Each structure stands twice: as structure tokens, then as C-alpha cells.
Amino acid sequence: MNQYVTRTIIKELRERNKMTQLQLADKLGVTDKTISKWETGKGYPDITLLEPIADAFSISVTELISGSTVSNTNVSANMLRSKFYVYPVCGNVIHTMGEAVIHCHGVQLAPAVPEETDENHKIFIEKVEAEYFVCIDHDMTKKHYISFIAAASSDRMQMVKLYPEGNAEARFKINGVKRIFFYCNKDGLFSINVVKGLDDREKSYDDVEERRELEKVAGILFR
């Protein structure tokens, strides 16, 4: 059994919750001597007690077994602070609005950490009426591709799942979108502030030279 459910950790959780050994024992239906044995490593809690122990400390059984407690500071569920968990073996993508303990096929996943876009992951965002058209200059082979693109506003998340040999592009309702996320199956998660990647001008430019320069840049990005 994982050492997390015995010895000093039980004591740490008990004291953090301001409980005496007797109070914890009463909650679990055991004696305070039993609690003392757990905290000194002289005994182990029965597997049937894992859920009651987790409940007593207001954590999940998964947290108890994994050894990682979760404190979700994103209580207002701001989508801009979302986290993505990706399991590369099966391709599952799990989105949360804050801290969580996520498992897929028995494997505990760590949240993907978004990086700034780079030369190998160029993105172009264009405003077309009430939508953002997002295009990523990236291979879409069976071995190297963009897995998904997501658009986040403070109160909603829009996500488009992509597949190898398709197009690395998506359309999103503007709806206050402020950040774009996308995931490369080899290089991980990337994100960009919409303003940085946005061509927010109308199609008819008064400045012809400026328009030509913008078209030249776009041509370099998507050649």
C-alpha cells in the first residue's frame, strides 16, 4: 500500500484539519490507538477505510493514494485559467477549469504547460465577421500534427479536434475570446493572446503599401 496513507502524512492531514487522534478515530469507527499505529508506521489502514479517511480530510481517494492534494484556487471557474491534460497513447484530451487529479487508463496525467508560439508553430488569426479564423502553419502527417485548437474567453471554451492529414485550422465565435490554445502531438501545448496574432482590419485597406506588406508577411507564414 502507498506510504501516503500511513506514517507522517496521516498525522499532517489530521493536524491540518485540527483533529485529535480520538476525533479522527470516531469519524472512522476505530480506536485512537489504531490512529497512533498508522502515524508511527506500526500498522496500515484497511483498504475499506480509504474512502472514509479521504472524506474525513475532505480530499478524494485519488489524492489520498497518489500523494498529491489538490487546492483549486480558480473557484470562479475563469476559463482563461483552464488546464489541458493529454494522454498521448490514446489521444484523450481532458479539459478542467482548475486544479484536478486526472487519470487516463490508470496513468496519472500532469497538466500540459502552454509555451509561447515559435518559428515551428506559427499561428495566424483573422477576424471574419463574427468569427475568428485560426490557421497554424504546421505539418499534419500521421506522425506529426496539431491535435486540437481551442479558444478561451472568461466564461467559455470552444474546442475543435483535429486529425492527421486534415487542415490545421478552425473557426470560433468571437464571444469575448482572448486566448488561443493548440496542441502539437510532439512538442506539446502552445498559446497566444488573440491580439498578437490578429489581423483585425477590414479587407479594403486605404494604405495599399501597408496591405501589400501584410500580404507578404502572410505569404511567408503560409508558404
Short synopsis of the structure:
This protein is of the alpha+beta class and 223 residues long. The protein has helices at residues 7-16, 21-28, 32-39, 50-56, 61-66, 208-221, and strands spanning 83-87, 92-96, 102-104, 107-109, 115-116, 122-128, 131-137, 146-152, 157-161, 169-173, 179-184, 188-193, 198-199.
Characterise this structure.
There is one protein chain. This protein is of the alpha+beta class and 223 residues long. The chain is 24% helix and 28% strand. The strands form four sheets. It has a five-stranded mixed β-sheet, with no helix packed on it. It has a four-stranded mixed β-sheet with strand order 10-7-6-13, with no helix packed on it. A two-stranded antiparallel sheet has the order 1-2. The longest helix has 14 residues. About 4% of the residues have low confidence.
Task: Kindly list the characteristics that best describe this protein.
223 residues; 5-stranded mixed sheet; 24% helix; 28% strand; elongated
Q: Can you tell me the residue ranges where pLDDT is under 50 for at least 5 consecutive residues? A: 200-208
SS class: alpha+beta
Radius of gyration of CA atoms, rounded to a whole number: 25 Å
Number of strands: 13
Please count the helical segments.
6
Strand coverage percent: 25-35%
